[in-house]
Design brief:
Blueprint (H helix, E strand, L loop, with lengths): L1 E4 L10 H10 L2 E4 L8 H8 L4 E4 L6 H5 L6 E4 L9 H7 L2 E3 L6 H17 L1 H9 L15 E5 L3 H12 L3 E5 L5 H6 L3 E2 L2 H7 L2 E4 L13 H5 L5 E5 L8 H10 L2 E6 L18 E3 L8 H19 L11
Parallel strand pairs: 1-2, 1-3, 3-4, 4-5, 6-7, 6-9, 7-8, 9-10, 10-11, 11-12
Helix pairs in contact: 1-12, 5-7
C-alpha cells in the first residue's frame, strides 16, 4: 500500500520512532518535500496513487478527492478537519479520522502564554530593551479577572486549569457543555452573549464551520468590555481580522494574541502595527510531547482503517 505523509513534523529525520511503525506497515511512503501545507494542485500528483494519507494542514478539496480513486482513508494529524471536504470524502467512500485531545496540553499552554504575553506586552518589551530602550509599560494583572472560554473541550479545560492557578474567575460557553464538569471544577456556565459581555480575557477554542465563521466580528467585539484581551489558538476564520484591526486602533480591544489567521502565513497583516498584538505561526500543537502523540495516534488510525479494524476516531461515518 502506498501512503502519503504530509505533516511537516512527521518527515524523514523527524519522529523516527513513529515513522518506523508506519514503515513496518508499508514501505511505500511518499513525503511532503515542500515543508508547508500543500495546496490543491500540489497535493493531487502526490496523492493520486495512494491508498492512505496522513494529512497535515493541507487543502483537501472535492477536486483532490475526485482525483484519487485508490484513496481509502485520510488520517488527520490533529483534531481539526476544516480543510477537508467532509461531504466529498463521504461521497467517495473515503474515511476521515482525527486525533482529538492528544495536543490539548500543548495548545492550552500556548493559549495561556499568549494571554500573559499580551497582558504584559512581553514581546514588545523584550525587543525594545534589546534595542537599548528602557520602556515603562503599564500592563494588566490576571488575578481576580474573568476569563471567558469559548469551547470547553480538552484544550479549553487546560486553559481553565491554568487560569484558576492565577486566581482568575472562569466562565465558559460551549453548545455541548458538560454542566457536571463545570460544577465540580468551579467554572461558570454562560451563554455566548454573557461571555462576550463579562470577560476581561476571551480565549477561543471552537471549530471553524459555517456557524463560527467571523463569529467574533464588529458586533461581538462592540459588546466586549473596554480593553478586553482576545486570544485565538483554534482557527483563524473565527475572528474577523478587519473588525479586530479597527477595535485595536480605537482602543476597544486591549490586546490580541493569535496562533491562527484567516490567511496563513499572514504576510503583511495590518494587525502587526500594534505592540499589544502577539502572534505565533500556528504552532500550538508543536511540542515534542504533542507531536509524538499526534504521530502515534494518526498512524494507528490509518493502520486500523486499512487493516479493517475498528477505529473509534472516524469523523464521517
Amino acid at each position: 500500500m502506498r501512503i502519503l505523509v504530509t505533516p511537516t513534523s512527521l518527515q524523514p529525520g523527524k519522529n523516527s520512532g513513529a515513522l518506523e511503525v508506519l514503515k513496518q506497515f508499508s514501505e511505500d511512503l511518499v513525503f511532503n518535500e515542500l515543508g508547508r501545507p500543500l495546496k490543491e494542485d500540489e497535493l493531487i500528483p502526490l496523492l493520486k496513487d495512494c491508498d492512505g494519507y496522513i494529512a497535515g494542514l493541507d487543502f483537501i478539496t472535492e477536486k483532490v478527492l475526485k482525483s484519487c480513486e485508490k484513496l481509502k482513508v485520510i488520517s488527520r494529524y490533529g483534531a481539526g478537519y476544516d480543510r477537508v471536504d467532509i461531504e466529498a470524502a463521504r461521497e467517495k467512500g473515503v474515511l476521515v479520522t482525527n486525533t482529538p485531545g492528544v495536543n490539548a496540553e500543548a495548545v492550552g499552554e500556548l493559549a495561556f502564554s499568549l494571554i500573559l504575553s499580551v497582558a504584559r506586552k512581553i514581546p514588545y518589551l523584550n525587543q525594545s530593551t534589546r534595542e537599548g530602550q528602557w520602556v515603562r509599560s503599564t500592563g494588566m494583572e490576571l488575578k481576580g479577572k474573568t476569563i471567558g472560554i469559548m469551547g470547553l473541550g480538552a484544550i479549553g479545560k487546560v486553559v481553565a486549569r491554568c487560569a484558576q492557578g492565577f486566581e482568575m474567575k472562569v466562565i465558559a460557553y460551549d453548545p455541548f457543555i458538560n454542566e457536571d464538569y463545570c460544577a465540580s471544577h468551579q467554572i461558570g456556565v454562560c451563554t455566548f452573549d454573557e461571555v462576550i459581555e463579562q470577560a476581561d480575557v476571551i480565549s477561543l477554542h471552537l471549530p471553524l464551520n459555517d456557524s463560527t465563521k467571523h463569529l467574533i466580528g464588529e458586533e461581538a467585539i462592540g459588546r466586549m468590555k473596554p480593553g478586553a484581551i482576545l486570544i485565538n489558538t483554534s482557527r483563524g476564520g473565527i475572528i474577523d481580522e478587519d473588525a479586530a484591526y479597527q477595535a485595536l486602533k480605537s482602543g476597544k480591544l486591549g490586546g490580541l494574541g493569535l496562533d491562527a489567521f484567516e490567511v496563513e502565513p499572514p504576510a503583511g497583516s495590518l494587525l502587526f502595527e500594534f505592540d499589544n498584538v502577539v502572534v505565533t505561526p500556528h504552532t500550538g500543537a508543536h511540542t515534542r510531547e504533542a507531536t509524538d502523540n499526534m504521530a502515534n495516534a494518526s498512524i494507528q488510525n490509518l493502520i486500523d482503517v486499512l487493516s479493517g479494524k475498528e477505529c473509534p476516531y472516524i469523523v464521517n461515518k
